[in-house]
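SWIM-type domain-containing protein
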Amino acid sequence: MLEITESWVDSLAPNSAAIKNGHELVKKGKFTAFHQTEDRQVLFGICTGSGKTPYIPSADFMTPGNPVMRCTCPSRQFPCKHGLGLLYAYVEGKSFTQAGVPEELAAKREKAGKREEKKAKELAGEAESKPKKVNKSALKKKIAAQLEGLDVLERLTHTLVRRGFGSLDSKELKMIQEHVKQMGSHYLNGAQIQLRKLQLILSSEDKEKAYAHAAEQLAVIHAFIKKGRAHLLQKLEDPELTMDHESTIEEWLGHAWQIAELRAANLTTHEVEMIQLSFISYDDPSRQEYFDLGYWIQLDSGEIHSTVQYRPYKAAKLMREEDSFFDVARIPQLYRYPGDMNRRVRYESFTTRKIEDTDLSGVRKFAVNSYAEAVKKVKNQLKNPLADPNPVMLLHFEEVTADEAGRFFISNSRGESLELFDLLEISTVPLLKLIPQDQLQDAVMLVLFDHHTLSGRLRVQPLSLLNGKEIIRFIY
């Protein structure tokens, strides 16, 4: 069986309450027995509950890195606190005696084993599987509806520009909201998000600041209309209606990439190890979703990827929250989404190992030494209005300094410096005061870039600090 760490178990939990409750079950001695099979593929136990009959949680490692968690309790959480408690007990070194699996669990394992065997054969090409056929007629109708929606969106933006932001009132804001609903009918999810964002900006009480951001937002919408229309028209001319596997335009137009599509486009990397450098959770009203965003570095290439989980408001309570991860994730197959810097990635399973000093020294080697080169790379991405406006990079610095006004700067050996700002709702810059001075020299910092509309300057916010021994996270 694979190495189980507490951090890895935490990553399986649906929320922080489940983590706490799982630990409490072990601490309070609610488990009356711990067992494992002879091949150590299955862990199971007996845990007292609120009823007369005890619960039997189990963890089946038939597929390493992607255990099947089961429990006889009625909880709707997955995995439940009993399953988590079972794994925490194993991590703590509790004694697991050898035993055969219960009959009911054995029957479920047999069915699951057949499914996994079929899946493995399909992945290895041993089973014949016809590629999913695209209904070209339906897709053409969808594209026609999207083009019509882009025309509607363009007329709206022209109307708003002609009237001017200063004359907009509640009537115009209501009109924008009505168009948000229309974009859904035209299969333009990206347009819905951007229009809702515009409405939120214009609803701000700080009108002077709002107008500057609204102008920038209209520029994004205009770029979306232009690029989206060109892409859709080009696709209609293609007999195969080929998807764009390089840019993010398909996602802007509402396409949700499936693993099979990413695999078919050769957007996969095998046997990857990654370390999470930072983790942020936040609320995005324009998407009406919660974001769980992690930044990871690939140890063999130095690429900084992102993992994103969207939790819609309506379903957030039923979805597992992502969280910070403190080990090395060993991933059999990594899937990359189309994009530029900090490409979004996903994976189906992973195992873990502890971070070693050699891992951290390897990460340091990938840090950018020239701030001029870093700024140039970021500016090249920001030339595309549809690109991520807040890329992150690893920068090496010689020291962190503060001036008389209390502003913090990082500087390199070339005499270049960057001022540090608090750009996100979570403040990180003041935390630098709490770090010993010797750790603020000759180190590496993960920073988030942002273009300040009013000044036209690029600004950076520190997300984490990497010295030779540890990763110090400012947000987690």
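thats it. Residues 126-131 have pLDDT under 50 and may be disordered. The CA atoms of residues 193 and 286 lie 5 Å apart. bye
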